[in-house]
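Suppose a classmate hands you a notebook page containing two proteins, each written out with its sequence and a corresponding row of structure tokens. How would you begin to make sense of it? This section walks through that situation. The first entry is reproduced here exactly as it would appear on such a page.
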Amino acid sequence: MEAQSLPFARKAITVEDALAEDISKQMGPGFDPNRFIPFVMMHEFEGLLFSDCTKFAAAIGRPDLAPDFQKVRDQFQCPEEINDSPITAPSKRVIDLVPNYQKPLMGTFAALEIGLDGIRRECPFFHSWVTKLENLV
């Protein structure tokens, strides 16, 4: 509940911190808190796909929709913020433009086309989490 009133940039961090604290308590005194690295995606996977609207549109076979995807993207500071309500969630915005959108198939093609580097460039919260994972090695 605490996270609801916070600005977007603090919401996920607040939830992640609470999860980490709760897991540590549940696991007991011998638990190493560095073994649990939570990631809370505030909205849907499709939000990440708005990282590169041209590649997103091309990957799902609809290059003509790149400008429409870009119009959605331009309304937000970063793709991770795309979500106003259950009816304007990222997948709903995509389905409005692509009624036959198949999330597992088309979403995977788009993510592969955009690439991890492309998503990380546009999605700072996701980038931060991946960096934490990389630093474990």
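The notebook's second entry, a different protein, reads as follows.
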Amino acid sequence: MNRSISKSKDAVTKNPKRNPSKPVGRDPEIRLFKDVQKPEVTEWVIFKLHAPPMAKVYVAGTFNNWNPAALRLNDNNTGTYSATVRLPMGNYEYKFIVNGEWLNGPNCNEQVPNAFGTTNNVLVVKRTTPPKAHLRAFSRMPVSEDRPQYTSPLGE
């Protein structure tokens, strides 16, 4: 298996020189293992919502500590707002915020109760395609009003 290590030249040259007269301990082995470990698996997620033109639309959830201003959706000038982000695999709860009002996505089929007596949308991020095929699909994804208001992950 051919694996590459992404280390800068500066990081390599700053490593301490090895003294061949001293035995090698586990610390360098542990550091090397952490360097070559597989990075966290993530997937592209598109949050999409129809709202009035010129609205301020955000999405908040467990993926951004429920920060209502952390992720603003962009308007495509037809009332469709969207944002594309990479999230690690896992389950998330979220809600949209439109002009300060917290809303569920109308096309979200899975919801759970929250502490405020309402419900949160549930988003399950999982690997659906090999990474290279996934990126090709993402780059060719057509713009269409017929697509669901949010899609997670791409390809479903």
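A careful reader of the second entry would note: The chain has a mean pLDDT of 76.
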